[in-house]
Amino acid sequence: MATAADGGGHSLDFSLAQQLTVIVLCALTAFISHMALAVFNDGVRPFLLDFIQGRGTRSATTAVSFGLSAGFIFGLGAPMALSTGVLNPWLLFLPTDVLGLLSPKKWLAPLLGGAWGAVVVFGLDGANGLAHDLPVDFLTAMQEMSTPILFLFTLFPVLAITRQFGKVRGAVAGVVELALVLLTMKLWPDMFAGALAMAVGVLMLIGFAVVKDVRQRRLDRAGLLRSAAPGAGGGGTGAEGSAADAGGTGASVPAEDPMNSLFSASAARLRRYLPLFMVLGAGVCLLAQMHVFGGGEATSFLIAKGDYAGAAQVDFYRVFGFVPLIATTALASGAYGIAGFTLVYPIGYLLPNPWLAVVVGALV
Question: Which chain regions cross the lipid bilayer (predicted)?
């Protein structure tokens, strides 16, 4: 298959197999987004909980998705694809997030997603040629538009903690995230500096929520015990006395694991659609194996140069920064990530043939 690297790093002329893969994958991701099963944008995922539970409308959720994605699409995804000749998830999957949520009908979502995939594979080559024929290089400047947006995502957990648990805990979370940003820039310069900080911020948010839930349940159980105490000492006999004694000892108030109550419903919902997620993983891994797709900011440039091993190494390291974020937001919201834990990216780059990529991607 022809790759972007074969054309000097700036070709967006895809083979038929590559075109079909992109179109079908975009249709699938739009359908999954419509079902609120998965989205690519980590910032949108927490908002899906209200939509899934019926507290939010489709139009409101779509507006949130577009607002949090537009900057990445036009400031990162499109300029990077034009400058490298390699597709990326911000260009493919963020628009299908929006189109899937926007679609009022289930059957319309894959049509809109497939149409976007067709626009990408058939329209970007002309746009790429036009952009590089201009006397002014505006693509590099457009890429810088995404930088402040990326760091703003790091503040979301801090703002949520401040709003729900007070300014003191919010300040603590802010200091921790700032320290992690500086530490990441120093120790792991190839990783986005805000990735680890945002992951830890989300974990702190979940931790504060669990602690609050535990305390509330203890207070509720204590209230039940106090209300049952007069009945226990009121001289009840027989079955009534036994029931009162059981209430007095707290045996009738079983302790409930707060983590289980918080995550079990979301995990069960995701497990029901495991076959669909396997198809999605197979498609993403296949696209990565075709070497016309890069999963990260630095990866696209490495793929364009033909350095697939280097691209796999970079994206493999990025997995560890995003696993906590993806896992916690998925379990808390009931919506997974389009690329899963993103492990399909480095695996796909290194696999020797597309059939193996399909099988391994489905398993991962």
Answer: 20-40, 60-87, 107-125, 145-161, 168-185, 191-211, 273-296, 316-336, 343-363
